[in-house]
Amino acid sequence: MKIAMIGTGYVGLVSGVCFSDFGHEVVCVDKDPRKVELLTAGKVPIYEPGLDVLMARNVAAGRLSFTGDLKAAVDGAEAVFIAVGTPTRRGDGHADLTYVMAAAEEIGRALTGYAVVVTKSTVPVGTNAAVRAVIEKAVPAAEFDVASNPEFLREGAAIDDFMRPDRVVVGVTSERAQKVMGEIYRPLFLRDFPILYTDLETAEMIKYAANAFLATKITFINEIARLCEKVGADVKQVSRGMGLDNRIGNKFLHAGPGYGGSCFPKDTSALARIGQEHAAPIQIVETVIKVNEEIKRRMVEKVTDLCGGSVNGTTVAVLGVTFKPNTDDMRDAPSLTIVPALVGNGARVRVVDPQGRREGEKLLPGVTWMDDAYVAAEGADIVVILTEWNEFRALDLTRLAGSMAHARMADLRNVYSPKDAEAAGFEAYSGVGR
């Protein structure tokens, strides 16, 4: 089956590569000629483990190609996926659908026969109906169906999530569209992965509801962590005790500096706006958004308290600035709140991150970038663990403490135990909820 993938951002590129590995002929489209040139040369513009190898294999097999010519890509395609960005719209928190609607109109004008136009981007309820209206207005005679196929990919584990999904959600309005989508996902159906067919609005809502619930779990355990610090409990043990209940589960119950990334911040914001506009406010989600921002600011206070009430003139070694490990994504990362606050309060900040420097240099002015955690810690007054990359999980704490001017650690991911830090020579240690 021929598939056109419009947009080669994180979702579009991963999905296009994986669909080609299913055996489909996939043409990925992007308006940025530099990105097309980069991809055609076999270079991946994002960091996602294993994606470069999978992409090269399918390009070599002739199943995957890249172009800036949307009309040529759509010609003869049985399915056209919209995977463009839906950033938060300035001023009201809603999802900006400018790119989605522009892509829909261009796709409509490029259709040469029946195709299913599939929205892969995360969009508010009602967007797919609007996509249909845009295409029908642009080309009244166009023969097409619209489908909703939200993605559930975790950055750093996206290929495995695509190939071994918990579920595939497909919103359709006709048997013909369902048949096309069933053929696209046939390799997963044959391996008994669940494929849930719904109407368009339900599929759209599933994506937002799922992300909002996960963001709520993260925020809940961070609030419990704050209380644990007040009463002398250990949030790691609390999380374990909660997670052993099958009704709750242990995922997304790890206390830290708050959630970030490309999905949770914008999706919770968009869902809150949808609720307000339909006179059905989702107060839990609205509170989650507010509390998550407060959590980030509390981390600044934690670092400041460890430094005796002021970071002015101190040297701070920050380990990790991407919003999570195994990605280069800096979007809404807690570091974008915490690091500028430290710099603004007079700290000299050194940063180490295996993949974050490319984006981080633009987003975190006034810091010094280093490649090694031990070098960054030399003569420092405090080490702050912000992202739990593997290389920060097994540091020689004795060596680290011995090289510092003041051996202090703000372990904002609870990588180490207070006892181990003390035994290694740290004069002060603070985790989250411990």
List keywords for this structure.
434 residues, alpha/beta, Rossmann fold, 2 domains, six-stranded parallel beta sheet, 14 strands, elongated
General description of the model:
The protein has two domains: 2-198, Rossmann fold, CATH 3.40.50.720; 200-434, NAD(P)-binding Rossmann-like Domain (Rossmann fold, 3-Layer(aba) Sandwich). It has 18 helices and 14 strands. It has helices at 10-21, 33-40, 51-60, 70-74, 98-110, 127-138, 158-163, 175-184, 186-190, 200-231, 235-243, 264-277, 283-306, 335-344, 357-363, 373-377, 397-403, 418-423, and strands at residues 2-6, 25-29, 64-67, 79-82, 115-119, 144-148, 168-171, 195-198, 315-319, 348-352, 368-370, 382-385, 408-411, 428-430. The strands form three sheets. The chain has a six-stranded parallel sheet with strand order 3-2-1-4-5-6, sandwiched between helices. The chain has a six-stranded parallel sheet with strand order 11-10-9-12-13-14. Strands 7-8 form a two-stranded parallel ribbon. α1 (10-21) crosses α3, α10 (200-231) runs parallel beside α13 and α12 runs antiparallel to α13. The model has no long low-confidence stretch (mean pLDDT 96).
Short description:
The protein has 434 residues and is an alpha/beta fold. It is built from 18 helices and 14 strands.
CATH names the topology of the largest domain as: Rossmann fold
Multimer state: single chain
Q: Report the mean per-residue pLDDT as an integer.
A: 96
Number of helices: 18
Largest sheet: 6 strands, parallel
CATH class of the largest domain: Alpha Beta
Helix content: 40-55%
Spatial gap, N to C terminus: 54 Å
Structural class by helix and strand composition: alpha/beta
Strand proportion: 5-15%
Gyration radius, in Å: 23 Å
Q: Which segments are poorly predicted (pLDDT under 50) over 5 or more consecutive residues?
A: none
Biggest sheet, spatial arrangement of strands? 3-2-1-4-5-6
Strand runs, count: 14
Number of domain units: 2
CATH fourth-tier homologous superfamily of the largest domain: NAD(P)-binding Rossmann-like Domain
Gross morphology is: elongated
